[in-house]
Amino acid sequence: MKSQKAKPKIYVRKARSSDREAVFKFCEKTWSWGDYIPKVWDKWLREKNGRVFVATINGVPVGISHLSMDKPHEVWLSAARTDPNYRRIGVATAITKKCLEYAKRKGAKIARLVTESDNTAAQTMLQKLGFKPIAEFAETVTENVTEEKSKNSKWARENETEAIWNYLQTSETYLKAAGLYTVLFHWFSLEKQDLKRFVEQRKAIVHKNKKGEVNGLLLIEDATAREWHKNTMQTCYIDGDYDAVLDMIKFLKSQCYDLGVKRIYGFTCNHKPVTTALEKLDFKPPDSIEIVYERKI
Ligand SMILES: CC(C)(COP(=O)(O)OP(=O)(O)OC[C@H]1O[C@@H](n2cnc3c(N)ncnc32)[C@H](O)[C@@H]1OP(=O)(O)O)[C@@H](O)C(=O)NCCC(=O)NCCS
Fold first, then answer.
1. Which of 27, 143, 190, 204 could connect to 37 by a Cys-Cys bridge, CB 3.0–4.6 Å?
2. Whose CA is nearest to atom 45 of ligand 1?
3. What percentage of the chain exceeds 70 in pLDDT?
4. Ligand 1 centroid distance, CA of 92 (Å)
5. Which option is the CATH number for 138-296: 3.30.1490.190, 3.40.630.30, 3.40.50.2300, 1.10.10.60?
């Protein structure tokens, strides 16, 4: 039975650097391994397109959440944390509402975030706030970075961008992925200008069929090497049937082998032809699935 005690008043405000100690303290045991908040706190407080909100009760910080305005129309929410001693009294709900209000004022039309399939607390809270699950993703990983022979995959050229974009418009995977790609644990809408950037930066691998038509796409990033572990790479988006994906991953593995990359994080939409191809090439599947939620604001 729920407590009948009067709920304490919750205030939500912009985080200050003086909140640091209290926040780090209640985040100490968020997960069995701890939390990443101390690693990103200083950076987040300096961000121009981001903001950390803090909830206080009697002046003491009891919860946080972070947002970043990725594109003028979309906001990404992350790091909802409530002090374990103050849970189930509306702290995270109050902070999330504040984040949505703030983002709306800044012009955002869509809010998104990710949570793990086994996080019932977060999912129940999100659904109460009107968020809907829109896509599932899997973070697979391999340290078996080998030289492989691929047949029909190569780095996409700038003059192929239009053909790739047209391919995406009728792709089942793009639809299933809700048109999103990942960098680290952050999902963005994959628009034409993003595709163009990946191609220009030589971070897009394309697969073609016998007729020379595009039938597969793989986008990559080395942000994991900067932010997580050196000598790593991640896939941001994978699209194609089993054979196309297998061939593109072989191409990627060989490129990584030449570059001395030791680990590849295979982020993908949870789509069978793609996940099966990754497993075939020794990518370890995750224990839980990432679910991206979305809400119009
Ligand atoms: C998820 C989390 C942020 C929720 O914080 P909170 O301040 O307790 O959430 P709220 O009090 O606003 O909860 C709102 C509603 O969500 C649901 N909810 C929250 N925690 C729940 C739980 N443990 N089990 C089931 N439902 C839960 C309830 O429906 C709740 O309303 P109710 O208490 O009136 O029934 C908190 O549990 C937490 O810090 N967890 C660890 C970090 C984490 O998982 N972050 C989310 C990453 S996406």
1. 27
2. 80
3. 98
4. 7
5. 3.40.630.30
